[in-house]
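Lecture 7 notes: from sequence to structure.
We start with the chain below.
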Amino acid sequence: MRTNLFNYNLPASFIAQQPADPRDSSRLLVLERASGRIEHRAFGEIGACLRPGDLLVANDSRVIPARLRGRKPTGAVVEIFLLRQLDASGSEWSCLVRGRGLQPGATVILDARSIQAEIVAMAEGGMRTVRFAEPIQTHLHELGEIPLPPYIRNFAGDRGRYQTVYSRSAGSVAAPTAGLHFTTELLRVLRGQGIGWETITLHVGLDTFGPVTAERVEEHRIHREWAHLSAPSARAIRAATAQGGRIVAVGTTTTRALEFAATTAQKIEPYGSEAPPGRVAAFAAAVDLFIYPGYRFRAVDALLTNFHLPRSSLLMLVSAFVGQAHPQQPDTGRQMLLHTYEVAKAEGYRFFSFGDAMLIR
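Predicted structure tokens for the same chain:
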């Protein structure tokens, strides 16, 4: 499958630079994947698209202040972007760095607290292993800045808007953006309608925003992200399914984690022993499940998501989900999704992280 099949044209004017205010005033495109029927709503009306017994499952990961600024002993400015903690103490991290001459042995003094950081190794993809003189996470809120995606260039406001209202488990370097539309009041209303709510944790990595560069989809190496589904949440998800409710994944990160729970986690002891085959099992592990057309979904019945970048693994995942309604026509999901994107553009929807939402059912 050629990667360029997942390309589409998006003028920069469609990329949202500011979030909707209030959050649930963003727009919601509802796609019936079996028929291709499209409906246009406000996000605050999502309750009308769900039914009692449905269960929303969302990623509760919280974005950390991952962008650090410092200087070399010469005074040259350096930027360090934290990607993944490598040791138990929190002193060693996989990072992206910006600056000249940052080879192993180079040192950087972080602004404000004068904490020293040393480049200790080069890694693939231009990344470096950085060792801080003391565990850095205790100083992040003083030293760091919450990073916004590179396509958001004109944001003005509180960067707390790049967090979901239910985030609690710090560890992401990018937000699980499908959840940005919810307000605490909307969640209360949905619960009052008999719609359930559970959370899963997947710490989102920077690769979420990167295009797939391999010529063929199957050659792409998906990024690994740490995730956790608790035993009580796994039981609640299985119970909702057994009672005929739909599992509605809030975002592609939640989808990957849930599908991992229903497939790979089944094979990890002791997790798999608690759940029937094809049902979600509790787990804590690095998730590297790459979902693209042809994948058969086991856990997710409906998907709430934003509009994604061309050639991205996220666009491929959503294409696969749409296509599951057309098992005899393998390319229908991709075609229907790209057609829906053209409809969204014609209707003036806003794209990417601060943009509008889709509900696919």
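Points to note: The mean pLDDT is 94. The longest helix spans residues 332-346.
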